[in-house]
Target: MerR family transcriptional regulator
Amino acid sequence: MKVKEVADLVGISVRTLHHYDEIGLLTPEETTESGYRLYSDNNLELLQQILFFRELDLPLKQIKAIINDESFNRQEALVMHRKLLLEKRSRLDKMIATLDKTLQYTKGEITMTNKEKFEGFDFSRNPYEQEARERWGDEAVDRANAKVAGMSKDQQQAMSEEMTAIYTLLASLRHTPPQSQEAQAAIGKWYDMLNRMGSYSLEAFKGLGQMYVDDVRFTRNIDQFGEGLAVFMRDAMGAYADQNSQ
Model:
């Protein structure tokens, strides 16, 4: 199959397939003298595997390392994918149920306890931990994990609620200048909260903001609170770091 045919079949862009080829993630079985990429059935099976990994939010660099490993077993990987996707579906089902209840609550149809408002949210799993380790080292990540692990369930719940409140506040300000006094006061709350969980220098804080935009996993989760929030937070965090390091 030609690249356009594969793109139409799968529902991804030709540009994405070209990128996969350029980085050595998915190389077409054959390239004609005219430069046309031709994909075999084996290529399509590998592409399916790659997209399963992407659905689990793995970065392309890590996917490439996994599928190129001599010990990689496609059947075992499919079984793992199924298990993880079922877990993801379960979490999403809980969050959808919470969302439906919240809609009823806002209409005055039902009452909700504070605990019910946060059912389905799970901050005990950190999909970005490996990337954090690569950027800032094991010691900083282990120190942050130890702080969270040392909290009681009530303290962890309070932390989750505080995170949500700050995200909501920042989302309400995302159309204002990120250097404004109001935006800087709000992003300062984010910096203080992160430093209660771990230890972030101003430089690391600025770098984290950039990751919010560079890593689609961060962007997708943050922008759930408001489209463009990740970009706003990056700019506000950068301005905060620059202003406070002078």
Observations:
- The first strand starts at residue 30 and ends at 31.
- The longest helix spans residues 74-106.
